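Hello Y.,

Per our agreement to keep a running log of every chain we model this quarter, I'm adding this entry. I've kept the format consistent with earlier entries: sequence first, then predicted structure.
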Amino acid sequence: MTILEVSESSCSICKTPMQTENIYCPECGFPENGTDSDVAKFHARNAMKKNQHMDAGKKIRSARNVLYVMAGIIILFGVVSFFNDQDIALLISNVIVGIIYLALGSWTSKKPLVAILLGLLLYLTTIIISAIFEPSTLFRGLIFKIFIIAYLGAGVYSASSIKK
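Predicted structure for the entry above:
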């Protein structure tokens, strides 16, 4: 009875030990024993993934900036409304919502998908609540609302693609 010895080498990319008869690294997929064409395809795929992540990072930063701008606008609106109407409840509610947007904006650096998704849901909720109390608000600033939803939606999509 003979024992077959399996010789091992390591992957050139990730240094994972692998058997010499394997063509692809089991960890990173590099074609250690593949053709030049296989190696070129591997590097091309990695370059495309890197570009996708860079593009996703830009969209996440845009969504973060939208959250910060919304926080500023809401707080500013609350302060202006307070000085015009002397309505302390409106001021307090706008400051609270503005602080929530600021917190979500800063949270996008740690958990972008959750933060941007919560920001989008908060924005949609405020639009719906405003429309229930005053239906004409649904159409006021419609283009502005579409841009905000589009930027936050692109941020959610990009953050989810990075997570995958």
